[in-house]
Specification:
about 160 residues, alpha/beta, Rossmann fold, 10 helices, 5 strands, about 55% helix, globular
Amino acid sequence: MPNSKELVINTTPILALIAAVGSLDILPILYCRVWVPWEVCREIHAGGSDGFAIPEFERAGWLHKQTHPVTLSSLLQNSLDLGEAAVIQLALQQGLPLVAIDETVGRRFARLSGLTVTGSIGILLRAKTLGYPLSITEAIRRMRQRGIWLSAKVVEFALREAGE
């Protein structure tokens, strides 16, 4: 059963979740609506050299993908990467209190903006707590295989919280 909360999600958590579990299907189990700013959609579609995550992103037709750029505040535009800035701005404009950002500076700006922050590990831990069948150890291994960097502190926290 989805939680009534809505989520605005950044590029890195999308890529990390696809690396970890092979899809984004975990998100509608946890959230009633997941918003993706236009800027994040563009970053996903850029896809790098191998187009990683594009098919899974496209299959997730339930995502609330924005079709126009967000008008960014000067502070966000000059301080953050475009995706992070758009996630925070969209959340503020729509009155959505929860964002998924993995990068430290983006998380700090989101909190300073009065938003609640989660990230790819937080989403995975919440899903596991609610009974989604997954190994955090294996999810982290897959994320690292795809080049997604996680600090030792985050990995230690995740494994401790998951009881693994």
